[in-house]
Amino acid sequence: MASIWLVLVLWIYINDTKKGIQALSCAKIHTPASMVLAGSPVSVSCSIQDDCPLTKGKNFHVAWKIDNHFAPSNLSYQESNRTYGVIIPSLPDAGAFILCAVCEEQENLDSCQIVNGVNVKVGHPPSVPKNLRCSLSLTFNQSFCCQWDPGQEMPNLPTNYILHIFREMSKNDRYVIPRGMHSYSIPSDSLFLEMEINVTAVNIFGNATSETLKLVPLETAKFDPPEIKRIEADVFGCLNYSWSLAQSQTWLVTPLCVELRLKTMNNQLIKELVLPFWKQENKINVCDLPHGTNYSTTMRVKYNSLSKWSNWSDLKIANTLMKAPTGSLDTWLKVNDQTAQLYWKPSEDFSANGWDLSYTVESKKPKKALCVTRENHCFFNLPELVETVYLRATNAIGSSDHTKVPVYPKRGLGSVSNLSVHPKSEASVLITWGRPASPHVTGYVLEWRPLCETPAAPLSFTLMDKNNSSTIVTGLRPYEPYEISIYPKYVDGIGHPQTLMAYSSQKAPSVAPYLNVTEINGIEMVLFVIPACIGLSLLVIIVVFACVGKHERVKMCLWPIIPDPANSSIKRWTDSDSLQGMPHCKEDMEPVLMYLSHFSLLDLAENKPFKSDYVKEDQWSHDIDSHDESHPSFQTCVIYDTEHDKESVPYATVVFGGPYQNHSSPPPAYVRSDSTQPLLGANNPGSPPPYENVSPSGGVSQVQHFATFLQKSTESEENEEHWDDFPMLRSLEIRNTDHI
């Protein structure tokens, strides 16, 4: 069954391929142009071959398809016996595929077989070039360059551009622009003659010409910044400038338009001079300038009013000649007892005529300089009976005339009424007031100062005529409070002030706060938290193991154990005893040597029973000669904590059962342990009850001086292994010596 289906599919494929091959060799198609103008009709013809297998011995007709859609039959016609044609009124802007098909039946279009086809494109005339502009370059290689915007272009329709230049009394020039370029540079052989320029776009469907541009080439030039060579000040209030064009344009000799800009060193614009059609004399004289003032000057040039300005030249600094200051100063004197505060500022007729001004306040009777400063205020002690002080300004050339400052004898006269402040803008306020009742008012003094500056800023003031009842104060800082006061001035004194605190108008914040949002993602947290947890866990494990493994050492470092005699007892040791009485260690290993922190030597006496509550040192000492020499034996009493024996610090007392042998050497001084740790309970009223000592012989003898033990060599060898168990007691061993 599968083989039958396979044979059927192969037969269908071969049959279709055969029909396709037969169809491709059946007809030839022809059209006058493969691209037509948009909106114009298109004609296509199809010639059927005589040996076409689709038509041989058959009745057929020809149908036309436009982009897979059959064209109406009224558009087609038969030109000759086997040639058929179609006329299409117009095609879409994107063009279309026109196909020729052979149909066996007259009305059934499904039986049509396409035999050939052609792709016909649609084109448009070129767009009009726009924004034609030309400029002259005055660098070392002079050139006149024109540019334009081409508009929309078709990628499959080449467009050429032609640049036309028309000059008066000269031949016209025509430049064909290379394909793909929308600018062109031509030689600049005539800079001062007017010319007309346009550009034409050309393709197979037509051409389009831009608007005509009329210009003089030099008008389109933008000069390089000029250079100020030198500035001289040889006359009061005047500056003489010497200048030239840039080095690349010094060859040009023609009148130019020049502009100078003069600013003071505090960036205040003083003069801005525009000199039209200035002759190329390289000299400019500027006068009517303030004396003794520093200026920064820059300049620029252009050809005429239609041209573009060049960039500004580099700054040059110069100053006019100085002379002594002229004019008077506005002053405001405030007196409190004999302390004076004098403020001043330049009046409208004052001219510094120089820089680095200093100010001098002085009195004539007595003749005395009260203050010399470079500020605009001065505080000083006012001499008695002085009615006028004098203020003058001084520069390097000289001093100005004196400004008289009267000292008013009367203070606290009538004040103004209804003082009010109204915000006008961010930096200004409107101040209004009512006039005093007295008719002897000569004027007003308005003063203000900011309240939030540290250190406190000096006050500002202004003088006003007596007819004023309002004024506007400018130059305030927004959002800051100001203290504003107004004083009326009288013929013989100053009135009492009226004071208000005011703000200029506020506004919304100019800059929004910046919100910095940091996103932390289920990866960054893992990378941070997991290592932190692992490290913390390792640290805890290490600390726990260290504490467990070094428990005794850690405990002794943190809280050392001090033996408590109240909870101790006496253990008897002889030279035949072993280490059975020593506390056993936790580990099953060889016993560790026990180091004593204290030991004493006791001599047992028959006549003194050992029943005292406390063993005192004065009970342990007596003459060594009074003892019997025949019994050189000793006993050791070890006192240790019975309740906490494994954690106690042991110490020992050596008790001798018999006297030491007589020694001819002088008795040594009494030796005690170097330990500085006190025994608990000693001389402590709050200590527990004393312990009970059990004496093996019923008494305790006094402590004897250290002497040698008489031992036989065999006894030393037998007891050698016992001494190894008690390293501190071994230090008490004294070898046998002959001394009788």
From TrEMBL:
**CC annotations in GO:** plasma membrane
Asked if the keyword Transmembrane belongs to this entry, the reply reads yes
What is the protein named? Answer: Colony stimulating factor 3 receptor
Q: Which organism is it from?
A: Cyprinus carpio carpio
- Which controlled-vocabulary keywords does the entry list? Disulfide bond, Glycoprotein, Immunoglobulin domain, Membrane, Receptor, Repeat, Signal, Transmembrane, Transmembrane helix
**Alphabetized InterPro entries for the sequence:** FN3_dom, FN3_sf, Hematopoietin_rcpt_Gp130_CS, Ig-like_dom_sf, Ig-like_fold, IgC2-like_lig-bd, Type1_Cytokine_Rcpt_Type2
Q: Where is the signal peptide?
A: 1-23
**Family affiliation:** Belongs to the type I cytokine receptor family. Type 2 subfamily.
Stored CDD domains:
FN3
Give the transmembrane ranges.
Answer: 525-548
Tell me where on the tree of life, at the top rank, the source sits: Eukaryota
**Where in the cell is the protein located?**
Membrane
Residue ranges for the region (Disordered) are 662-699
Q: Which GO terms describe its molecular function?
A: cytokine receptor activity
Q: Where is the Fibronectin type-III domain?
A: 128-223, 415-508
The main location is membrane
